[in-house]
Input
Amino acid sequence: MTHEEAHQRLTAVFRDIFDNPSLEIADSTTADDIDDWDSVNHITLIAAVESEFKIKLSTRDVKNLANVGDFLKLIESKAA
Amino acid sequence: MLKQNRAELDYQDLVRKARRLQPGVGQKLKIALLADVSTQHLVPVLRALFASNGIDAHIYEAGFDTVQLEAFNPASGLYSFEPQLVVILQSVTKLRGLYCESGDRAGFSRAQVDAIEGVWQAIQSHLAVPIIQSTFVIPYERAHGHFGAKVPGTLPGAISEINRDLCERAQRHASVFICDIDYVAAWAGRRHFFDERLWALAKSMCSLELLPDVAQSIVDIAMASLGRGIKCVVLDLDNTLWGGVIGDDGLDGIGLGDLDEGGAFRFFQLFLRSLWERGILLTVCSKNTESTARRVFQEHPAMVLREEHIAMFVANWEDKATNIRRIREKLNIGFDSMVFLDDNPFERNLVRQLVPEILVPDLPEDPGLYVRAVCELNLFESAGASALDSQRTAMYQTAEKRESEKQHFGDLNSYLQSLGTVAELRRFEPPGLSRIAQLIQRSNQFNLTTRRYSQSQCEALMNDASCHPFSITVRDRFGDFGLIAVIVLKHPAQTLEIDTFLMSCRVLQRGVEQHAMNHIVEYARANNFTTVAGRYIPSAKNSMVKEFFAQFGFERGADEGAAGTEWRLDVSTYVAREVFINLETKP
Output
């Protein structure tokens, strides 16, 4: 999976979870940049990411996720 | 309840659905959610699932782990919200720590349940609403392995004890319903239910995948407590209750019993039988020749269901939608309290198209999975159990039998004859007095004068020699109607007066009233009365008997307004009416 492909698929997940079909995300995007990205949606987001990329994140992984870039790094390191 | 299958319980789909809910659509229901786990992820799922059941759920979320605080504080948000339903969700996670530190392991379970019952009582003292209490999921960790099952004082043992005790206590509180989360977890598997990571991150009681199952359980119980639920199962026969087609394969050829697929159908029938026991009406709707289909119920040795379990048996070659409408009409229940179970997708779709209100779940191709499919939908959640439940079928059934006999006999008289009706006339006597007084109080439609005598007045009539008060008890070969008519004759002077003439509408048109009139005239003749006087006093509900006396040749008197109309019969002109009732007159 290329970085580009991961970014595209992650964008689709974000658009679904935050219910915004034109949402764009960058590596630097954080919870402050997206209105509905609160602690509740964070969990929903993690679950959606896990099922989209067929990966499992640990509690520590999730705690250390500060921005979209962190998400992508984790996905790329875990996804086959 | 679920409509089709578990696919409706996808967490992400439900969250999406919750986002798109239109406010104010459906019946409003205010629900307070108290929990020692977080409920943020549960709430949207609950709202979406309630919406599927036509409920606009308004949910009050108490703060994390504030169950007692909310319950014991009269000024809490719980009470100012004025909920119509309170849900208490508790997790085993908190109990782990408490149990570990507990100085009184032996008394631990009891103390926990006491505390929970205290919460119920506090809530009940402020609110008269249903309370849904969760059970605890038995933890998976075992310090002794399997051996722990026989060791006292283990954590899993203590939790099982709490669950058992909780259910027992709930029996004493009619308004408390148990939401058996332990069953939900066991069904899915505890290793799938618990999500340690999600607990750490969000204090969620279970994985997100299983949160909808928890929510659906709450919805099911809430709907049952609102009186919604399935009351009647409409069953296909061929390949639903047995393998194969009875019309083609014959009694020996159908699959039912211990062999191969036969066991699957027996399992399904055993489950249906347990539904019958708890008062669900089982009905048959099958494309078959009725006698051929009934023979299986009468003669096949492996049948678990017999004719006595079937409230209505419809087997013919008409379309199933028409037949289902007929069943609904006879049983007089709503389509939304009926479920149709048929292995044939064509029939299911036809019924879905033509009777959209009835629930038609898919059945799997493998009959071995029928029970599983039906249980997964939790179609039969109930809000009460009664010892009388299983008698209900008999009640409907005898009514149906009489009805269907009526269809067989073109001629009403031969039908009436075939019923073998026996009527017993008795002068009032002490054992029947309370039933007599009850009938006098309740009968409205077939009641000529609506005079409401109390039980002590009935007793006075009984002892009055100038009165002839009698009751009629009726039974036929299908069943016993009990005491269904009361007639009071008075003879102050030369005229025999019909003071009271009332009858239960259940026995209309069977000749009971004719039979009674024959008796009245006989009595008049035996006691040398030349005239019988009747009276019709109009009430709000008795117009059906306005012309009652006319059919017996009584002559109408003047209309006296509120006092009604007097009708007079010249006894010598009366010809006894033909009735098909065996008399047992003991006045």
Summary: Chain A touches chain B through 14 residues (CB under 8 Å). Residues 3-78 of chain A form a domain with the Non-ribosomal Peptide Synthetase Peptidyl Carrier Protein; Chain A fold (CATH 1.10.1200.10). The radius of gyration of chain A is 11 Å. DSSP finds four helices and no strands in chain A.
